[in-house]
Amino acid sequence: MTTAAELDPAPKLGDYAHPERLVTTAWLADHLDDPNLVVAESDEDVLLYETGHIPGAVKIDWHLDLNDPVERDYVTGEGFARLLSSKGIGRHTTIVFYGDNFNWWAAYALWVSTLFGHHDVRLLDGGRQKWVEEGRPMTTEVPSREPADYPVVDRDDTVIRVFRDQVLQHVRFGGRLVDVRSPGEYSGELLAMPDYPQEGALRGGHIPGAANVPWKRAANEDGTFKSADDLRAIYQGELGLGANDDIVAYCRIGERSSHTWFVLSQLLGFHHVRNYDGSWVEWGNSVRVPIERSSEPGPDPRLKAVG
Amino acid sequence: MAMPARLAEIVEEFADLPAELRLEALLDYSRRVPPLPERLAGHRDAMEQVPECQTPFFLATELDEGDRVTIHFDAPPEAPTTRGFAGILSEGLNGATAAEVLAVPNGFYTALGLDRVISPLRLRGISAILGRLKRQVGVQAEARSAGATPSQ
After folding, report:
1. pLDDT band at residue A195 under the 50/70/90 scheme
2. Residue-wise pLDDT tens digits, B75-116
3. Which one from A251, A253, A263, A273 is the annotated catalytic residue?
4. Which residue in B32, B22, B6 sits closest to B110, CA to CA?
5. 20 to 30 A Cα–Cα from B144, which one of A22, A259, B26, B49?
6. Distances from the Cα of A103 to the Cαs of A37, A276, B122, in angstroms?
7. Tell me, what's the pLDDT at B56?
């Protein structure tokens, strides 16, 4: 029986609710050869891994590997078992995810792995950007890992994932929502991130009652997460969220909100945080769902539900 | 499909590859983007940005005396997929006539067979690059046929 990798003792991490969910670049550099640890790169750009990656890292692509090729959903338990087995990852392997773009897709891959209950998943604080900027080793060599025997585990969509009709109920009962998109997308002025294609949703705006906290507020310029104190000041101080609140985070297709989901549930330790991966591309295309088109959260949704 | 000979060859090359090798071929093209000429290097204000590419991506086009097109791309190394598109267009269209470039079907990239390995959003980048470079070439060709000096 192999044991999980040890934890990164960096003091910054100790201030978070779940320090076991993060590792620093310095720690990872010293643990690349740990027998029960696999580093996995997940990027926005599907070819970036091929241009160079952390030595020994495998590639897990959100589009090719984690999504079902036909339906808009994630792979099944069989598909996930096949994928992880092929990457040499067993049920008790420590996975350290990292990627480009402030770890958006790495956080997304970690969130999807959590749907399957993979126990020891961690993010590399600062992601690919920090590793590269520190001049740490990169290679184009694709590792040949012995395939593992990952068990087939059913995906649990009830705890950290939420679907449109549940969000509708959540809105009617006045639940807390965090819209992590840019202010222009939130107000309805833009349908996608600035400079991204203005396509994907027929209506602009946000889910009534949602507060706007762009995902990037949780990150430093070097790609790392802000300190626990800074994060508390934003989400608890400014926004007034509490550890026991029922919170839904969303963005356009669920990747930026995976980043915020990670911050709220893993770094701040909030107990009931769900990611609405259907996000604006689903909501803004749905018939007869309420939309608020302004830069304010909107009227108390409970009042609307009465009428 | 009406396409310049080299572009048609590239499309065929991709279509003939098994799906798992298409990404590798795209990576290969990402390494074949010619460096910018000195007058454009570091002068992004002289080029047109393609905001649909999700990454800082710029292009410029020129028509020579014989109406042949030269396209310049400025694409960052951390966006190899977009660079790969630039490599395909650069190799496939450079030296073609303005009329040939304008006749390239806007959806030509679907024949590359990349839709299974690249998300739709990523693929839209390539159609935006083609759209913007065709517009530039069209403006210059029109200016020339009207006898005016091209502005770009």
Report:
1. low
2. 988 889 999 999 999 999 999 999 999 999 988 888 998 887
3. A251
4. B22
5. B49
6. 19, 18, 18
7. 85
The mean pLDDT value for B117-135 works out to: 84
Q: Whole-model pTM?
A: 0.90
A251 classed as catalytic: yes
Contact B23 A48 (CB under 8 A): no
pLDDT confidence of residue A213 = 96
What distance in Å separates residue B126's CA from the closest CA in chain A? Answer: 12
* Three-class secondary structure of residue A94 per DSSP: strand
Instruction: Give the list of residues 6+ apart from residue A145 with CB closer than 8 angstroms, or none.
Output: A38, A58, A87, A88
**Cα maximum dimension of chain A:** 62
8 Å CB contact between A118 and A3: no
Residues A200-205: contacts with CB within 8 Å, 24+ apart? Answer: A200/A252, A200/A253, A200/A280, A200/A281, A200/A284, A200/B121, A201/A252, A201/A280, A201/A281, A201/A283, A201/A284, A201/A285, A202/A284, A202/A285, A203/A284, A203/A285, A203/A291, A204/A284, A204/A293, A205/A284, A205/A291, A205/A292, A205/A293, A205/A294
CA dihedral A242, A243, A248, A249 (to 10 degrees): 90
- Give B51's contacts in chain A (Cβ within 8 Å): 195-196
- Above 80 in pLDDT, residue B25? yes
Q: Does residue B37 surpass a pLDDT of 70?
A: yes
Distance of residue A63 Cα from the nearest chain B Cα, in angstroms:
6
Which of chain B's residues have a Cβ under 8 Å away from the Cβ of A195? 51, 54
Rounded Cα–Cα distance for residues A194 and A183 (Å):
10
CA-to-CA distance for A259 and A162, rounded, in angstroms?
16
For the stretch A217-259, pLDDT in tens is 999 999 999 999 999 999 999 999 999 999 999 999 999 999 9
DSSP string, A69-88: SSSSSB--HHHHHHHHHHTT
A215 with A259: CB under 8 angstroms?
Answer: yes
Q: Do A47 and B30 touch (CB under 8 A)?
A: yes
Q: What is the pLDDT of residue A194?
A: 61
Q: For residue A262, what pLDDT is reported?
A: 98
CB–CB contact A44 B54 (8 Å): yes
Are B80 and A45 a contacting pair at CB < 8 A?
A: yes
pLDDT score, position A92? 97
> Which residue on chain A is closest to B27 by alpha carbon?
A47
Closest chain A residue to B55, measured at CA: A195
Tell me whether strands A58-59 and A94-98 are parallel, antiparallel or unpaired: unpaired
Q: Is the pLDDT of residue A303 over 50?
A: no
